């Protein structure tokens, strides 16, 4: 039988492997034949969407930080109380910058127009200063915050991505603007990460075509118009919030997908080379083959162990009584033969108890078969609680049970039988709201050397009949 199970599992693995490999290779050739269409209409736009989503996700943290600052009662109370002790807000901003790793943190009061920074008060903002136009724009926002790219007030040489968040008093009036700054270099590092992850060329352009951010493999062009190959497509890219195009650089076709990032008012451009796409499909084929082999092996093992488990379950169903979980007579024959050999070899005693429930028919008549089943099930459980693990309980038939006790003489067997009878008499069986009173009659005997199973069963049955004839709830020895 083990050989048949293994043979079946191997055949299943072969069939699954053939099916998986056929599907993988057919998919590979179909995908390779339609590579350009797939890249232009599906793969590249999807990658661009993923990159766009990740950029937005990476911007969520500074937005979240700015929101916490804007809703912190410290800013409100400190501002409303006259902005006394500026060192307090300076320390607060320093802690924000240190804890979250931002390049700057700031707060501008609408009352005093003071620009508070981690290094102190940098200046007073003025509507006449073009560098401060961001602040007065932020005051009138319909949304609570905006993201803009500007030179840092603390360091005009540093281009920074700012999150400007309105601070409102308890009546909802704007009393200032707070926020944090994210270094443009950090976004450049993200671009490098995306390029390595997706195998694409990624860069940003403003709405005039100026290249604002790019990765290391972009080149030296400063504008889309200066890019020799993409120049004919520049107008179409810049006038559309999103498009998919392709151009040829003389060696291969390059696909371009553009998408507007409204937070920056920049265009995100993602390029993919045709050869890279082909390589990715080949890599996908290899991954599919590896996954297919893994699934095939997994299914094979699962099939093998499932069949083995079902076989064991069938053996259990064939070997044990479903109601009481006691072994049946066929199994008891094998157990008896094995146990008698061991006891003879070790020169140990072997005893047997045969018992049945007194007036079991009346229980069935009174409580129905469910009540009779409950009685048999609970009696079997009580018997198990009084015998050892090496002892064997068998449901011999109907309400009759046989217990085989290796290593126990007749005296020990009598004690065990009395313990079982006392427990059943004292506890009875609970059936719904009723308590079924039960007693048992039992016969006990000790195995004689070289005695057959039928012989010892006959003797212990005679002892059981003696108990019945004596008025039930009795235990007799053969």
TrEMBL record:
<dbReference type="Pfam" id="PF02743">
    <property type="entry name" value="dCache_1"/>
</dbReference>
<dbReference type="InterPro" id="IPR000160">
    <property type="entry name" value="GGDEF_dom"/>
</dbReference>
<keyword id="KW-0472">Membrane</keyword>
<dbReference type="GO" id="GO:0052621">
    <property type="term" value="F:diguanylate cyclase activity"/>
</dbReference>
<keyword id="KW-1003">Cell membrane</keyword>
<feature type="domain" description="GGDEF">
    <location>
        <begin position="348"/>
        <end position="478"/>
    </location>
</feature>
<keyword id="KW-0812">Transmembrane</keyword>
<dbReference type="InterPro" id="IPR033479">
    <property type="entry name" value="dCache_1"/>
</dbReference>
<dbReference type="InterPro" id="IPR043128">
    <property type="entry name" value="Rev_trsase/Diguanyl_cyclase"/>
</dbReference>
<feature type="transmembrane region" description="Helical">
    <location>
        <begin position="6"/>
        <end position="31"/>
    </location>
</feature>
<dbReference type="GO" id="GO:0043709">
    <property type="term" value="P:cell adhesion involved in single-species biofilm formation"/>
</dbReference>
<protein>
    <recommendedName>
        <fullName>diguanylate cyclase</fullName>
        <ecNumber>2.7.7.65</ecNumber>
    </recommendedName>
</protein>
<feature type="transmembrane region" description="Helical">
    <location>
        <begin position="285"/>
        <end position="307"/>
    </location>
</feature>
<dbReference type="GO" id="GO:1902201">
    <property type="term" value="P:negative regulation of bacterial-type flagellum-dependent cell motility"/>
</dbReference>
<dbReference type="InterPro" id="IPR029787">
    <property type="entry name" value="Nucleotide_cyclase"/>
</dbReference>
<dbReference type="InterPro" id="IPR050469">
    <property type="entry name" value="Diguanylate_Cyclase"/>
</dbReference>
<keyword id="KW-1133">Transmembrane helix</keyword>
<dbReference type="InterPro" id="IPR029151">
    <property type="entry name" value="Sensor-like_sf"/>
</dbReference>
<dbReference type="GO" id="GO:0005886">
    <property type="term" value="C:plasma membrane"/>
</dbReference>
<dbReference type="Pfam" id="PF00990">
    <property type="entry name" value="GGDEF"/>
</dbReference>
